[in-house]
Amino acid sequence: MELSTSLFEHTLSDHFYPITSDCGRLSMEQKNAFLGQLLTTIDLSALGSLYFHQLKQRVSLVHLSLSKAQPHLTYGLAPANCNQQQSFSLPLKGVNEDADPHCVQYTFSGIPSREERLCVGELHLLFAHQFANALAFEHMRKLATKDTLTALGNRNAFNEASSRLHSRAQRYNEGYGIMVIDLDNFKNVNDEFGHQEGDAVLQAVAAQISSVLRTEDQAFRLGGDEFCCLLTCENKDALIKIAKRLKSRVENHTLLARHGISCSIGGSTYRDGDDVESLFCRADDAMYRVKAAGKNDYIAA
Fold this sequence. Notes:
301 residues; alpha+beta; Beta-Lactamase; Alpha-Beta Plaits; 2 domains; five-stranded mixed beta sheet
């Protein structure tokens, strides 16, 4: 069995850590049962939580950290006066091996026994394999929901995010808004300067949209030169402020100004009885009213 480093193997010595644990070597049946539990999820956060709670049933683990692989994946609380002998790390084989290998840090309530370390070592190998699978799945999921040209979310991402936001609005009576953005004069860029220049324009607009949003807001490219934003706001005032900032950024951007690019923007906020489609349609209709009225403006529906 290949574990972490010679340091870990050295500390398995009876003279280094006491044999005071009821945790013995795992049978094949126990390993299979443990693996069966891990295979019930491919979600990174849920997988880490499941692993932590499964380990706590077998050893005196109090804290598990996967933060080197994913910053938010930490479980339990490490003792305030924890010393080095209460903690050790094991590498995640198959995860980021070309760079600095990721690892899992295990912290115990006291100095772990030899049997506890052996137990963790065996279960770690099973977990590391499933964690690599979960990371690969997460990577593929992100690719499936990201617009490769602008790095914004795509239509699939919008559908997922809007569904979550709408469910939260209904459950907690919280407002949110949708902003639909369509570029003015974009077709002229593609026709006169080619698609490479058109791509540069789309990337520049995407960057300006991202720059005016708050951390909790999200931007998407729905296709062509149509963009959309999901905004966690209670009223139309927030939409108006963001629309004004975006218009100003676009008008003062060197590349966009050179090509005469501006934005027609429509917005709407959540009302009782709305679903995502009705909310989007109001914003979309408002955007087309801007187009019909001369472009480069914002209307709230």
